[in-house]
Amino acid sequence: MLNWRVIVPFVLTGAIWGSTWFIITGQIDGVPAAWSVFYRFALATPALFLVAWAMKRRLVLTAPEHRLAVLVGLFQFSGNFLFVYHAELYVTSGVVAMMFGLLMVPNALLARFVIGEKVQSGFLRGSAVAIVGVSFLLVHEWLANPDAGVIGGNVALGIVLAMLGILAASVANVIQANPTGRGVPMVSLLAWAMLYGTLFDLGFAWLTAGPPPVPASASYWAGIVYLALIGSVITFPLHYNLVREIGAGRTAYNSILTISVAMLISTLFEDYQWTWLTASGMALAVLGMVLALRARRVKSVQVQQSAQMRPHTSDSSPST
Q: pTM for the full model?
């Protein structure tokens, strides 16, 4: 963990992904969110194909693999991001990032029902603590919104959109872990999935927001480049190198750094107000996530130890 090959990508991915939540707010200011999602992935898709080619990964997929890529694209690069961009119209970007820190919960539950993966009791307890903490932050958003009223107004809509985004991302995570997904290089699957998702984003944007706008702001296009190349392409090789170096369990702790950076940026640039409610919510959320991730890490260690006690039949394993 103290090797520079671990520390540098760990810090970079956490800082970059933590900053993207705030950058998104500049992409939805006066520009339809759906078009901003399309512009982002229209630039990121060819770049990711180039990364896959440079890494000498297989780019020719079979018919079942293409069908899987379509599903991952629809859920990950369309549903997930469309919901997130629209959610940030109503909820502080750092709070949306904090909500996405709970992605591990639907991931675990869906994996339990879809592929039969057991959920640790420690993971459930830690997740419950994290959910309480995030709930405190959402209550603050509700109370701080001048249009909240009786039913929560726009904040309630933002919360629902963020939850739908979390669910879409979770579905994408779980379905790519099936046998078909495990047989495809991850970067190649993501490249094709991003292509299919981008095509859907184009159709959705045109149907819901009309012809594509051409913003004149240089900062807008700088944000597109940052989100597409830095936030969507460069971080993927860094992330999967971390998974290879220290394992998926330890890499998952990167989410704690990500949400911490996101909340810090919201404090500095979105005038996010800290109170006893938000401070205690942040503390509980981070503590709960650490406890939940630690439980999953213990499970991974136990699985590895038991695997060492029996003959190895395959070197392949899901990279989730």
A: 0.85
